[in-house]
Specification:
The complex is a heterodimer of chains A (about 350) and B (about 575). The relative contact order of chain A is 0.17. Helix content of chain A is about 10%, strand content about 40%. In chain A, the strands form 6 sheets. In chain A, strands 1, 3, 12, 13, 14, 15, 16, 17, 18, 19 and 20 form an 11-stranded mixed beta sheet that branches. A 5-stranded antiparallel beta sheet of chain A has the order 26-25-22-21-27, with no helix packed on it. A 4-stranded antiparallel beta sheet of chain A has the order 5-10-9-6. Chain A has 3 domains: about 10-15 and about 145-275, Glucose Oxidase, domain 1 (3-Layer(bba) Sandwich); about 50-120, OB fold (Dihydrolipoamide Acetyltransferase, E2P) (Beta Barrel); about 295-350, SH3 type barrels, CATH 2.30.30. Chain A has about 350 residues and is mostly beta strands. In chain B, about 35% of the residues lie in helices and about 25% in strands. In chain B, the strands form 5 sheets. Chain B has an 8-stranded mixed beta sheet, with helices on both faces. The chains are: A mainly beta (about 350), B alpha/beta (about 575). At the A-B interface, strand 5, strand 9, strand 10 and strand 24 of A face helix 1, helix 3, helix 4, helix 11 and helix 12 of B.
Chain lengths: ~350, ~575
């Protein structure tokens, strides 16, 4: 009775996706509202610019006396050059003054020092994916329900993005070449088997593609992918590993349709959403269930990383792998009819819904 | 529950970052024995994003193993145990599933109070995200503005404020507290990290007055009450409590899991520490445990009534690229007899980090993972060695009991692999018994001890460990080709065996699991086992490996050309059967 890793590939599923504003701000949508990828869902408060004014030092006063000299207090709006504090006593001509270094709001005072908050630009936040708002966290963001196909990659970099899906190769083992990327990739999220050429990634960025989805990437290109202005998603890992056939097939079936890439989940991996417009809601992700004979699985460990097949036997006794270690596991018939032993920790289910 | 009202069946649930384990103990012939363990991948992360599916699945797996219902049809625990034998009397929980606490450290001098605070942090599931000191010039506008930006970037859960000796000069400490108060005022209330103050005790009330209206302030004893006195335990304990409050409770479903438990859920590292402390106190041992996980690693030790640990969150097998970047890829590759090219090694480390639950299927991958284990453990030991217990009557770095915990020690092709990883990283001297914590039962025992110490004791004595054998590692160095020590092994059946072990080599002498032997050991000149080079007679335990004489010398001779070192490492692998 082995409970495998979570499923990463769904042909039809309902996923709840949290979309948080990068900073606190205002949520512009309501629960129940349907949004498209380009719709605004919120606006962040501006990123402030701070100015510290050492009132006590400038006026030559103790912090206690400086507080008495204040003409502006936390919450007050000030113009640049306006007096913040004026020393008391003596001739008016010889009074020391402390002026606001910028237009903004007095944000705080502590022990003779004032902080002025200068307002910056506010930032719009878009939905990036088609779906329904199911929950609003005031000032923070929303939870959206997205229906359609879903794929979680192994690694990703760059910003979240959306566009039209374009599969540029015929097989999951075909590399992405520079000749594949022309102006037709503009605004598109492009798909290929793998990539080992940095110029190809740069070309995709140059023609303003909206993202790249690959089976694998040469490990030397990782730093470049992290610097690109567009997202890069790999489904299998680093090296020259073809994309698993299940994921490739799923993407090919959505060629020309909307796609969204989210790269905001850190080590949990990037998410690829392929929303559909079916009225009947698909089921939520499956709960953990034991591996069964007949189940379709993907292999997530060496030496067959990315291979897909069916479980033909759940073994009751451990077996030795090439490394010499004994593991409990399953026999998997791969798509090309070879049957291999795989430790249960090295398989990931592709749920029945994925192949339906 | 037995007629006397005493507990008989105990379920211990451990929710780790990678695996959730459900372990069942019950009384068999008057002793608590391990009946079985279910283990599944933890489910606190999306898509399940709830800890309970994993807990229920691991318990269901355990039900299938032991042939006994532990839950009802709704997945609720049957407690106490029914007359029919279904259910359990009690359940205890340990947890390490939450992300580590993010700690912002603020203080005065790097080498005094901040150094002590860093040592306190080392025993907690916490990562240091930024450190503020006098050098940051908070009295200057640039320093203050920078502090605002740094607080934004740090996304800290906790700000630990330290500095000053008790009753010492106060101005700088109060200035730092004032600067923090200024910075806190302009942050939203829910973005102000809780403050733990562990500085000058005389300033506790003033610090509370400055910061108390802006955020929650907890005060503990000064980490550095005097220049020559360090007191890290109160801060360390406060952070561990905070982990349970802040992090564990953020794990979705933690509250439901708590309703299963009869005792306060325990931090897994705390449970392991209790176990080591118990073993040390009960048997008078100087003990050490190396724990290597996917997401973190730790070294625990106990001796003479004291027990402590050093842990590094985000320093586990899935952090291979970070370990290789910090230690150097060549440092990893030197441990592999036929090392992969650096590009291939980087590729494998990155891919291992993408699938932390996957196990090595190929020999090349396994060797690389073992090399990674050596280096990440060695780095951890560099943190731990300065605070290891010192005993003038013993050899440096000598331990009576060495516990190896984690799947990397458990899932080996041969027991020699686990032993060699430990010997290379820890480089113990003297005579030690080495065991593998095969099912993470050492942690379970620490948790069980909170409700039934006897059950924990029985578990540790009978089921928790798989003995690898006895390590004999003389301290010193010898010339190549010379003899390091001579042994006469007297087996229980009367047979005896004379062995001469060459300097620079490893020798394995058969002694099976459950067997004992008497050894007469004569170290050669230049080598010592703790008796100033004299002959000694000791009784030792066997194991899956037997008696291992590691006469390579201490420290290990690792200075050599790459080709020479590679040949040497290959020899060591062959000699120990790795």
């Amino acid at each position: 009775m082995f409970y495998p890793a979570e499923c990463r590939i769904y042909r039809r599923v309902t996923i709840r996706k949290e979309r948080l504003l990068p900073r606190q701000g205002q949520v512009l949508v309501k629960p129940g509202e349907l949004v498209s990828a380009e719709d605004l869902i919120g606006r962040c408060h501006p990123q402030p610019r701070w100015h510290l004014v050492d009132v006590a030092r400038q006026l030559g006063l103790s912090p206690e006396d400086a507080e008495k000299a204040l003409q502006k207090h936390p919450g007050d709006i000030v113009e640049k050059g306006e007096f913040l504090a004026v020393s008391k006593g003596g001739l008016a001509l010889f009074r020391r003054v402390c002026k606001a270094p910028a237009t903004g709001m007095v944000a705080a005072y502590q022990a003779g020092r004032l902080l002025i908050e200068e307002q910056g630009e506010s930032q719009d936040v878009r939905a990036l994916v088609r779906g329904r708002v199911v929950h609003v966290r005031p000032g923070m963001g929303v939870v959206m329900e997205v229906r359609g196909a879903y794929l979680r990659g192994a690694w990703g970099a760059g910003p979240s993005s959306y566009g039209v899906l374009k599969v540029l190769v015929d097989t999951p083992a075909t590399p992405l070449l520079i000749k594949d990327i022309d102006i037709g990739a503009h605004g598109a999220v492009i798909v290929a088997g793998w990539c080992a050429d940095g110029d190809v990634l740069r070309q995709a960025e140059q023609v303003q593609a909206r993202g790249i989805i690959l089976g694998s990437l040469d490990v030397s290109l990782r730093p470049l992918a992290e610097k690109l202005a567009i997202p890069v998603v790999i489904t299998e890992g680093f090296g020259g590993i073809p994309m698993n056939p299940e994921a490739f097939d799923l993407l090919r079936n959505h060629h020309g349709r909307d796609v969204t890439i989210f790269t905001d989940r850190g080590e949990l991996g990037p998410e690829v959403f392929l929303p559909d417009s079916l009225d009947e809601p698909p089921p939520p992700p499956e709960k953990p269930a034991p591996l069964k004979v007949g189940q379709k699985v993907r292999i997530i460990g060496y030496p067959r990383l990315g291979a897909v097949g069916h479980i033909v036997e759940v073994l009751s006794t451990p077996r030795r792998v090439e490394a010499g270690v004994l593991y409990e596991g399953v026999m998997v018939e791969l798509d090309h009819h070879e049957t291999v032993f795989v430790p249960w920790m090295n398989v990931e289910p592709i749920g029945p819904r994925a192949s339906s | 529950m037995s007629d006397s009202g005493l507990l008989s069946s105990i379920l211990a649930v451990d929710c780790g970052n990678l695996f959730t384990r459900a372990t069942l103990l019950d009384v068999v012939d008057g002793q608590f024995r391990l009946l079985g363990q279910g283990r599944v991948l933890s489910t606190h992360r999306p898509p399940a994003a709830h800890i309970m599916p994993g807990v229920v699945a691991s318990t269901a797996q355990l039900e299938a193993i032991v042939g006994r219902d532990l839950m009802d049809k709704q997945g609720m625990l049957l407690m106490p145990e029914r007359e029919s034998g279904q259910g359990v009397d009690t359940c205890v929980v340990s947890v390490s599933a939450g992300a580590p606490l993010r700690v912002f450290l603020a203080g005065l001098a790097h080498d005094v109070s901040l150094a002590s605070a860093r040592r306190a942090l080392a025993s907690c599931p916490a990562v240091l995200v930024d450190t503020l000191s006098l050098e940051d010039r908070l009295d200057q506008p640039e320093g203050m503005i920078r502090l605002l930006e740094r607080l934004d970037q740090a996304e800290a859960d906790v700000l630990v404020l330290v500095g000053g000796v008790d009753g010492g000069a106060s101005r700088r400490m109060l200035d730092t507290a004032g600067a923090l108060a200024l910075a806190y005022q302009v942050r939203p209330e829910d973005a102000r990290p809780l403050v733990v103050y562990a500085g000058d005790a005389a300033l506790q009330e003033q610090v509370r007055a400055i910061l108390g209206e802006l955020c929650q302030v907890r005060v503990v004893d000064n980490v550095r009450p005097a220049l020559d006195v360090e007191n890290t335990a109160p801060l360390s304990e406060a952070l561990q409590r905070l982990y349970m409050e802040v992090r564990a409770e953020q794990v979705p479903g933690f509250e439901t899991l708590c309703s299963w438990s009869h005792a306060e859920p325990l931090l897994a590292s705390q449970a392991m520490r209790y176990t080591l402390g118990y073993l040390s106190a009960r048997y008078g041992l100087k003990a050490v445990a190396l724990q290597v996980g996917a997401g973190q690693s730790a070294v625990y030790w106990a001796s003479g009534g004291q027990h402590d640990l050093v842990m590094r969150p985000q320093w586990g097998l899935k952090h291979g690229p970070a370990v290789a970047a910090q230690r150097g890829m060549d440092m990893l590759r030197r441990w592999i007899p036929e090392p992969p090219e650096p590009d291939e090694a980087w590729e494998m480390l990155y891919n291992l980090s993408l699938y932390p639950s996957a196990v090595p299927g190929s020999a090349r991958e396994l060797r690389l993972m073992h090399a990674l284990t050596r280096e990440l453990t060695a780095a951890l030991l560099e943190d731990a060695r300065p605070v290891f217990p010192q005993d003038k009557d013993r050899l440096p770095n000598s331990w009576d009991l060495i516990i190896l915990s984690g799947a990397v020690f458990e899932n080996t092709a041969a027991p020699g692999q686990a032993a060699l990883m430990m010997l290379d990283a820890l480089q113990p001297a003297g005579i030690s018994t080495v065991v593998v914590d095969t099912l993470s039962l050492a942690t379970a025992a620490g948790t069980i001890a909170t409700v039934e110490p006897l059950a924990a004791a029985h578990l540790l004595e009978r089921d928790a460990f798989l003995g690898l054998g006895t390590i004999i590692a003389p301290y010193g160095q010898g010339k190549k080709g010379s003899t390091a020590l001579r042994l006469r092994v007297r087996y229980e059946d009367g047979r005896s065996l004379d062995v001469e072990v060459g300097s620079g080599t490893i020798e394995v002498i058969p002694l099976g699991l459950g067997q004992k032997a008497r050894l007469e050991i004569r170290p050669a000149r230049g080598f010592d086992l703790g008796w100033k080079g004299r002959k000694a007679v000791v009784e030792v335990d066997g194991g899956t490996l037997g008696i291992v004489v590691d006469a390579r010398g201490r420290p290990l001779p690792l200075e050599a050309s790459p080709a020479e070192l590679q040949a040497r490492v290959q020899q060591w692998h062959w000699q120990i059967g790795a």
